[in-house]
Design brief:
By secondary structure, this protein is of the alpha/beta class. The two termini are 33 Å apart. The chain contains ten helices and eleven strands.
Length: 300
Amino acid sequence: MKEHALNAGPCPLCGSNRNQNVFAERGYDLLLCDECELFHIEPYPKVDVVHNRVRTDSYSDFHISDVNRGYQTQIQFFDRYFPLIKEEVEGASSFLDLGCGPGRLLELLRCFPKLDRMGVELNLERAAWAERKSGCAIETRPLEEMKIDRTFDVIAMINVLSHIPSFDQLFERLKPLMAPNGKLILKVGEINRNVKKWVVRDWHIPDHLHFLGLGTMDYLCGKYGFQILRHDRIPLADDLFSRERWKSRGKSTARNLVKGVAVNIPYALPLLKKLYGNIAGTDTVYSSFIVLTHNGGPQK
């Protein structure tokens, strides 16, 4: 049985002090909240510290990515996930991409000529790239500091929620930005409470501040007044061993060579996926696609 963390700060979602130690990475502990099942790092950083990190890519042990590599990674990612997003955007007249990075999603959404698109990206270099690629306005201030007197039919946070330091500030700002019957699209990681560190090669802490537990989304919806329209849990193995992921290139030349060979060998990826699933299990970590709508207020 895991021990409760001593002298740890409260859960950033529910405020509970009942947090269990799970594992450590890069000098941070990953804790599991007993109340809302959120996994969160300790020590937990302040909002302004996180915003400054994103603007400057100033992480102690790793660099997030240069812009071109990040753009190429987005190309491979949206080759897999854009059809799901496109289905949810169909019929919308306005779209906001929070944490748009180099802007590949906004670029792809040009397939809807009448769609009014806008992005938010704190890193100035990535924001400039996104503006060039997408041809739409990119805001470089944090959402909490922006003054937007309009609403959006669809707001997307693709692989972004785990980087947001304040749930309260985020959802307080999101609600007035959503049109009636508007959608919030989330692409997030969800973790079973029995997870082991070795299941993922690098958890990218402290870039990732928290991960959702299997019960966290229900708690979040109840607290902030949302309801779930769609919740697809995709086993991490499906992402780890997808052709799109293995075709993407990273910093390591040796790893890129191995990936290039494996992706061209028939049945190599399915066999690796099966082997991983047999060892790690298929119900431990999920890469989830979630669509929410605001129901007008917190549930009682």
